[in-house]
Q: What sequence folds into this?
């Protein structure tokens, strides 16, 4: 326990100094592995190679590529403008479009960060132009992005299914109702906030983008929906793996851009370059996180926690509450996938022993990881929004995300109280 | 020197972009060829290798663009000199971190070269080839980071004057 606290303190100090997150996690892992036993440092080299050449992670550059093509070829802007045309009459206007478009793009990108980046790039200029409340605007974008790891194809759900040997198809089906519930709660919150204080989302009949009729807007919506159907359809029918589906989706995005007359050599060069740098930045963090996880495993911290929790003579819901708390705390410091990889070996047997369904827990876990994406100091989506518009203070994005943290936590509470929200579909389809 | 650095960062990113294009075509071919019932088993395996190189080669440009994510709330509240000194310290720590990775990854790559270890799969590529690419990428990152650190030190010495 002392080691865990000191390791956490190392992370906090280095983060506070403003060092890159990839460096913070990696250096902490290197230092603590060295302190345990310098002979174990060779394991770090294996970790680096395995992470960099991981076949699972190939999906990331391809999903980003698909998102980048959609984003830079104005498909995303047209889609956003089209959805905004349909939703701008609601109290909350474009904020509803932020959530709805994020939900759809989650199914296209499979990544929270890519979803947040794509939708934020399309949405932020309009939101700023129309004087929407900055905190709520960025909060909806960061929170909408979290849907990327809940709405299939979700990379964390695939990893979870393969680690605990549960059907990935069942997990995808189980995620549907909770995803719809979270999206609905986001919309309800925005609706109520906008009714209470209309100044946060100034009502306007003029669109921020080019004026289009509802019929014209369908032409912008249809290509994106087709990409979603092909990507998800390929995965659901088992015709493609998620990586192949991403390649197919990128090809379709290229085709749509070509059909709309937006494809050029410059665009291809740009999307390839940006995809490369974005992927490199993300995977460098994953490499750091894996080195950090290696140190955690080396010190046996995960086993110690498992023993500690296992020895507790308490009702199951109290232990579950403790696990939720641990995830919420760790989620503030460790990235979602690493946290899952770091803890599952310990937590999964505890959950099964307590009598909870592993499929149900998979969905609850992903929701808890969602919270980590929008809570500082390592809330990836907060940084993604900041990266899209560096002028926006991180503090504003953090504060704007807080109500959505509460909504996701309420959703977790509902899933604990009513497990059928998760389990009804997989057991009845 | 700075111009040369920018040249190699752009060149590395161009190679990374080409590798990404090949990766995309490879996996697209995987889907299409399966639809045509033509065997093509090594797409994912080759994809893993391409993915490793494209990531590492793009990293020097991430450093050039100061694209690494960081928590800036506390640093932004500090006096400019302290924040700049921390930036220099962060650069030095990054170089040390990369040097450690190069040392241990290089040792592993060299050991695999000597023992002739090959990848598990259909391609059976000597793993040291993949590992050497990753080590070389880390070395390029050190150069980019060192040049950026020099810029930061000059800025600190000039108390805010842009030296670039």
A:
């Amino acid at each position: 326990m002392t080691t865990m606290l000191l390791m956490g303190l190392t992370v906090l100090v280095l983060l506070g100094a403003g060092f890159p997150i990839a460096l913070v996690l990696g250096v902490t892992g290197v230092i603590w592995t060295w302190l345990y036993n310098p002979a174990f440092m060779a394991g770090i080299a294996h970790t680096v190679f395995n992470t960099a050449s991981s076949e699972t992670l190939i999906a990331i550059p391809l999903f980003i590529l698909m998102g980048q093509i959609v984003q830079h070829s104005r498909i995303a802007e047209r889609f956003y403008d089209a959805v905004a045309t349909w939703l701008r009459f609601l109290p909350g206007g474009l904020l509803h479009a932020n959530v709805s478009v994020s939900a759809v793009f989650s199914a296209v990108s499979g990544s929270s960060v890519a979803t947040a980046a794509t939708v934020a790039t399309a949405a932020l200029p309009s939101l700023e132009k129309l004087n929407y409340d900055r905190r709520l605007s960025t909060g909806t974008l960061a929170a909408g992005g979290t849907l990327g790891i809940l709405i299939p194809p979700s990379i964390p759900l695939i990893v979870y299914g393969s680690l605990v040997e549960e059907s990935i198809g069942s997990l995808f089906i189980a995620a549907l109702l909770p995803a719809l519930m979270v999206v609905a709660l986001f919309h309800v919150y925005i609706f109520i906030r906008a009714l209470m204080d209309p100044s946060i989302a100034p009502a306007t009949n003029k669109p921020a983008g080019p004026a289009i009729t509802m019929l014209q807007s369908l032409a912008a919506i249809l290509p994106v929906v087709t990409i979603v159907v092909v990507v998800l359809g390929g995965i659901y029918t088992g015709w493609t793996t998620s990586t192949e589906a991403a390649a197919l989706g990128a090809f379709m995005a290229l085709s749509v851009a070509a059909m709309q007359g937006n494809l050029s050599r410059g665009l291809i060069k740009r999307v390839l370059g940006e995809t490369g740098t974005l992927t490199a930045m993300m995977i460098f963090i994953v490499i750091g996180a894996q080195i950090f996880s290696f140190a955690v495993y080396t010190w046996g911290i995960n086993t110690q926690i498992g023993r500690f929790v296992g020895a507790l003579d308490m009702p199951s819901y109290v232990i579950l509450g403790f696990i939720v708390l641990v995830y919420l705390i760790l989620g503030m410091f460790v990235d979602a996938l690493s946290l899952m990889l770091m803890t599952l070996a310990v937590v999964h047997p505890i959950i099964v022993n307590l009598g909870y369904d592993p499929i149900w827990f998979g969905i609850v876990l992903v929701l808890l990881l969602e919270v980590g994406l929008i809570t500082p100091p390592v809330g990836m989506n907060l940084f993604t929004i900041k990266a899209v518009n560096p002028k926006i203070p991180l503090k504003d994005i953090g504060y704007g995300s807080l109500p959505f943290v509460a909504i996701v936590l309420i959703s977790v509470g509902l899933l604990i109280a009513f497990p059928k929200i998760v389990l009804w579909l997989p057991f009845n389809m | 020197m700075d111009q040369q650095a920018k040249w190699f960062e752009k060149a590395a990113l161009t190679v990374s972009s080409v590798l990404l294009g090949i990766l995309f075509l490879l996996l697209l071919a995987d889907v299409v060829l399966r639809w045509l019932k033509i065997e093509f088993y090594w797409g994912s395996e080759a994809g893993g290798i391409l993915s490793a190189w494209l990531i590492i080669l793009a990293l020097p440009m991430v450093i050039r663009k100061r694209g690494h994510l960081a928590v800036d709330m506390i640093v932004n509240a500090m006096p400019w000199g302290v924040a700049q000194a921390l930036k220099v310290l962060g650069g030095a720590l990054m170089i040390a971190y990369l040097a450690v990775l190069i040392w241990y990854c290089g040792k592993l790559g060299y050991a695999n070269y000597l023992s002739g270890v090959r990848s598990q799969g259909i391609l059976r590529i000597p793993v040291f080839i993949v590992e050497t690419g990753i080590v070389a990428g880390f070395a390029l990152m050190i150069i980019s980071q060192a040049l950026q650190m020099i810029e930061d030190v000059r800025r600190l010495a000039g108390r805010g004057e842009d030296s670039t």
Q: What stands out?
A: Residues 99 and 142 of chain B are 8 Å apart (CA to CA). The two ends of chain B are 12 Å apart (CA to CA). Chain B touches chain A through 56 residues (CB under 8 Å). The mean pLDDT of chain B is 84.
